[in-house]
């Protein structure tokens, strides 16, 4: 199915149009199997977005688009769909939105017909001035089709008076604030860009002499592509038949990749900014064991995201590692459920106790992060019901006290357990015998630094510190409802 127009009822259901989202992007230039390869790349990036996926191709004369709700494997495995996506150049996107339904008109890549030709954009990240730009554009007569911040990029591009598409693109991205890893397709070029701090990841790969752009290296591995290098912070790469060109449209600032990619978001087999995510997570666990040991019989991970940190913890503490919780892989990530009650149901559906290794034991549970506390409450109760003698909880990242605006979608401050509870209150809330988090310096040490450089933090770590590297222009303008086409027209 090509794009369906949203129904009137969907248009009114604006809860579906969440602004913050984590996504995965992919692009390939000049390969005869561009669409099929993009589908495979997106499949490897599925953990970054499970609600919708899209591919846009260019065949030398026309652009073709398929955007679908649901998983890549369900939407892009049929030969008919791939065959419709003709052309040697392709970009793709997987999308993850966190509340309500995903509305078709927000599914990326977004596409616009400009006077210079077609242009498609796939965006991972979140703009912190997207609402402000959008309001200005609408005030000046722009007509917006979606409620995503990504659409403003197309409008800015359309308005630039520069003669060439790359110059227009640079004009557009210079107006952006926040986090963006972009993969774009024009009729002659594949363009990749990372925001000045490199908050979200983007890598360059190569397959059969053709260039690829992808959010993570795991998308290169699935197709046997070679990792070339990261797109650097603040860099724009332009891929044409003549090769690859690198541009630097922003004043240089030190890179500050988002630390949450290492903690939770990226796939463990990916290499993000030169660091193995798996090794990083194991080191987080080892550091946690050094900082917060526990007198226990077994180390139990909260699967899957807590597994590498639990291996690191167990090895450092010399305590046996056991899979005391088994995860059902056919349930989506807990966060995807739209309401709190359904989310809780999701947690129960997802994990079950492996009684044999729990009963009568003192256990320490290891999870990568604690956000609302929903998972921890359920898991601790489950461990006690399975006969655990003592249940200790260790979190392989510091307490999340501040909301995210760059696309990892931690919720508003009031819903963050650590923002509203002190350590003892959190322990009591989740019902554990003891609770400890990794320290912020411990986080940096595990990632290969001596500690956090207070003057020049090496990572984007606002969730823990409240220090946001970019301006937050949109803060205070809110709610997604105000964003609606209908509301704006009032
Ligand atoms: P919560 O249950 O709300 O405390 O969330 C913590 C759990 O959600 C942990 O098991 C994490 O692995 C996972 N998690 C952390 N951050 C995110 C995120 N941005 N999106 C989805 N899941 C997350």
UniProtKB/TrEMBL annotation:
Chemical reaction(s) catalysed: 5-phospho-beta-D-ribosylamine + L-glutamate + diphosphate = 5-phospho-alpha-D-ribose 1-diphosphate + L-glutamine + H2O
Pfam families for the chain: GATase_7, Pribosyltran
Residues of the active site: 23 (nucleophile)
Pathway: Purine metabolism; IMP biosynthesis via de novo pathway; N(1)-(5-phospho-D-ribosyl)glycinamide from 5-phospho-alpha-D-ribose 1-diphosphate: step 1/2
Keyword flag Acyltransferase: no
Occurrences of domain Glutamine amidotransferase type-2 (ranges): 23-242
Keywords on record: Glutamine amidotransferase, Glycosyltransferase, Magnesium, Metal-binding, Purine biosynthesis, Transferase
Enzyme class (EC, first level): transferase
Gene Ontology molecular function, alphabetical: amidophosphoribosyltransferase activity; magnesium ion binding
A GO biological process held by the record: purine nucleobase biosynthetic process
Signal peptide stretch: none
Positions of Mg(2+) binding: 305, 367-368
Co-factor binding details: Binds 1 Mg(2+) ion per subunit.
Highest taxon above the source species: Bacteria
Cofactor names: Mg(2+)
Enzyme Commission no: 2.4.2.14
Similarity remark: In the C-terminal section; belongs to the purine/pyrimidine phosphoribosyltransferase family.
HAMAP family, A to Z: PurF
Function statement: Catalyzes the formation of phosphoribosylamine from phosphoribosylpyrophosphate (PRPP) and glutamine.
Name of protein: Amidophosphoribosyltransferase
GN (gene name): purF
